[in-house]
Design goal:
The complex is a heterodimer. Chain A contains 13 helices and 2 strands. Chain A is an all-alpha fold. Chain A has a single domain, classed as ABC transporter involved in vitamin B12 uptake, BtuC (Orthogonal Bundle). Chain A has a two-stranded antiparallel ribbon with strand order 1-2. In chain B, strand 3, helix 4 and strand 4 form a beta-alpha-beta unit. Chain B has 11 helices and 12 strands. The chains are: A mainly alpha, B alpha/beta. Chain A: This is ABC transporter permease. Chain A: It is a multi-pass membrane protein.
Chain lengths: ~300, ~325
């Protein structure tokens, strides 16, 4: 049975939508909803990887910076080094996956806390991005890099390929976590790593795989980010970094590990996106969005804590 | 109760729709919400919109350099029915594709304060001539130094930003040193510049940068700063080192805190720019487009004035009192 807290995020999202619908007649249109999805797709995708890590009771502070590095690698290789776009994308994915593996190895082999490891790799990824790009934005990207930002008609509205990809990956992640043994292992490791080890779960391998997969997902997110803005941006990822953690927490995944539903993270990302969109349509300063996000984050974590205490 | 809510909702719908039909909607996207320069710009736009019967939407990135946040705000405003969007681009290149999309939909986009790269990415640009702002303080510093050999520290913005490069290079040019032209994004580095560091336009970071530069080159006698918070930071560092008397600090911006620092002798001279004017002109252009369909075009210099409390021969300047009447911020 899903605990009450699992419904919380949906209720919050619905309430926000209802409120904004009364404020502006452009809010409740298919086109606007499609727009919000496009605006949250980067954070939403990063949040998949972040959710996996948080489910194991870890955290990844490097996600946004690793994403930015992937984007710069892809666009620099394709535009300035004349590498075929498909190969450039593959290199970008390889770099972000490598970062995930390094994070995973440091956490599992040297037993460093994930907070510290990813604090370090966050700075490393940021510095590498700035050095490799000379802090310059890369423009004139080939079509292959921006294809995911293109839209197609669906009924009366336009949907971007990137959003479709994000939704598909959410579905796959949801299925894998629910229906497969490795998926259940992720929860088990997050609940109690020692107990999981005693029941024969290869804890270190599960953790390493989670960090590596997260890295790969950040690579896909960098492709989405490049496609959305149409440029390779060395300053990308700086707000996405914490926005992704915010989305996961708002989505009801426990920061203490082992509990959470992956689709909640999408809802969490949407909450932030809907506030930003709705307040702009109303003509209200976006500082209020930051205010509301802060309150919601505390509420979400408080609900998690309280439900934990109640369960014991 | 429920029906009352329904009526209320319907009324809100209708009122919203009505208001939108009548008033031209103008969007203003700044780099951040919190920098006093942009707060003033927003104020100016708000006043102009109120006076001319327009509706102003505002948005911003979360931090300087947050391009994705600006893209999001831009899309939301186009969707909210804005026919003119005024933007101070955080990243002069990265914002271009989003602007292109908006312009393709018939939206007039005007850059305020800093240009896009290339500048014709927007319909028009209302901004300070940042190179000229640099030239003015460069000329002042040169005369103030007299004939002494120059040992210059530059506290710059951050790598890759055209405004940072334009002010820096303009300063060198005004000082009579070899300098790249106004279009260049590279910081000139003649031998007279003994230390160059990034301040991110921030007082604390400016202080740290100056402390480090003093370690490297204690003989400094001129400090160029990207803006007045950086200048205040530089002064703190100089004071701690007991060097505040012998060093000429110059800056750009003209915020009220900065002008008061000119009065207090912390800053020798600063170039003042006029965000309120930029915003008001932008809103007027937006109203004109909504009414007559005529778009603004080209670059409009919104003016710059040198503020100094010690006027020097051959240098045109206004004093801090006059500057305070025109300044922005608190």
């Amino acid at each position: 049975m899903p605990p009450l807290t699992a419904l919380g995020p949906f209720v919050a999202l619905l309430a926000a939508c209802l409120f904004f619908a009364t404020q502006n007649d452009r809010f409740l249109t298919a086109q606007n909803f499609s727009l919000v999805l496009q605006q949250v797709m980067v954070v939403g995708l990063i949040a998949i990887g972040q959710t996996l890590i948080i489910l194991t009771a870890g955290i990844d502070l490097s996600c946004g910076m690793v994403m930015a590095l992937g984007g710069i690698v892809m666009s620099k290789l394709a535009v300035e080094s004349g590498v075929p776009p498909a190969l450039a994308i593959a290199c970008g994915l390889a770099v972000t996956t490598l970062f995930g593996i390094v994070n995973g190895l440091l956490v599992t082999r040297i037993k460093l806390p994930s907070f510290i490891v990813t604090l370090g790799t966050m700075n490393i990824a940021f510095a590498l991005t700035q050095l490799y790009s000379s802090s310059q934005t890369v423009t004139n990207l080939p079509d292959a890099l921006t294809a995911l930002g293109e839209t197609f008609k669906l009924g009366g509205t336009e949907v971007s390929w990137g959003v479709v990809l994000m939704l598909a990956l959410y579905f796959i992640a949801w299925l894998a976590l629910r229906e497969t043994a490795p998926g259940r292992h992720v929860y088990a490791v997050g609940n109690n790593a020692e107990a999981a080890r005693l029941t024969g779960i290869p804890v270190r391998r599960v953790l390493l795989a989670v960090y590596a997969i997260a890295g790969l997902l950040y690579g896909v997110a960098s492709l989405l980010s490049v496609a959305r803005t149409g440029v390779g941006d060395p300053n990308a990822g700086q707000t996405e970094n914490l926005d992704a953690i915010t989305a996961v927490v708002l989505g009801g995944t426990s920061l203490f590990g082992g509990r959470g539903v992956i689709l909640g993270s999408l809802v969490g990302a949407l909450i932030v996106g809907v506030f930003r969109n709705g307040l702009t349509l109303m003509g209200v300063s976006s500082v209020y969005q930051i205010l509301v996000t802060g309150i919601l984050v505390i509420l979400a974590v408080a609900m998690d804590q309280l439900s934990r205490r109640g369960g014991r | 109760m429920r029906s009352a809510l329904l009526v209320l909702t319907a009324t809100a719908f209708a009122a919203g729709a009505l208001a939108q039909q009548q008033q031209p909607v103008i969007g203003l996207i700044t780099k951040t919400e919190t920098n006093p320069f942009f707060v003033k710009m927003k104020e100016g736009a708000q006043q102009a919109a109120q006076a001319k019967g327009g509706k102003l939407l505002t948005g911003a990135g979360k931090a300087d350099g947050d391009n994705a946040g600006q893209v999001t705000a831009l899309e939301n405003m186009v969707n909210a029915g804005a026919k003119t969007i005024l933007i101070t681009p955080s990243d002069s290149k990265a914002i271009l594709p989003a602007i292109q999309k908006a312009r393709a939909k018939g939206v007039q986009v005007i850059a305020l304060d800093s240009p896009t790269d290339p500048a014709d990415g927007t319909d028009a640009l209302f901004a300070t001539d940042n190179y000229q702002a640099g030239v003015l303080i460069g000329e002042y510093a040169k005369v103030a130094l007299g004939g002494k050999p120059a040992k210059i520290v530059t506290l710059d913005l951050f790598p890759g930003h055209p405004v940072g490069a334009q002010r820096h290079n303009g300063f060198l040019k005004g000082f009579g040193l070899a300098a790249p032209d106004a279009k260049s994004n590279d910081l000139g580095r003649p031998a007279e510049v003994v230390c160059a560091a990034d301040s991110y336009g921030d007082q604390a970071k400016g202080q740290t940068a100056m402390e480090n530069c003093l370690q490297k080159s204690p003989e400094v006698n001129v400090v160029y700063t990207i803006n007045e918070p950086a200048a205040a930071g530089a002064y703190q560092a100089l004071k701690k080192a007991g060097k505040e008397k012998g060093v000429i600090v110059v800056s750009v911006d003209g915020g009220c805190a900065g002008v008061r620092n000119v009065q207090a002798g912390v800053i020798a001279a600063t170039s003042q720019q006029y965000p309120l004017k930029m915003a008001a002109m932008g809103v007027e252009a937006g109203i004109a487009y909504a009414n007559g369909g005529k778009k603004a075009s080209g670059y409009t210099d919104t003016g710059v004035a040198l503020i100094a409390d010690k006027p020097l021969p051959g240098i045109q300047s206004i004093d801090a009192k006059q500057g305070l009447a025109l300044c922005w911020g608190k």
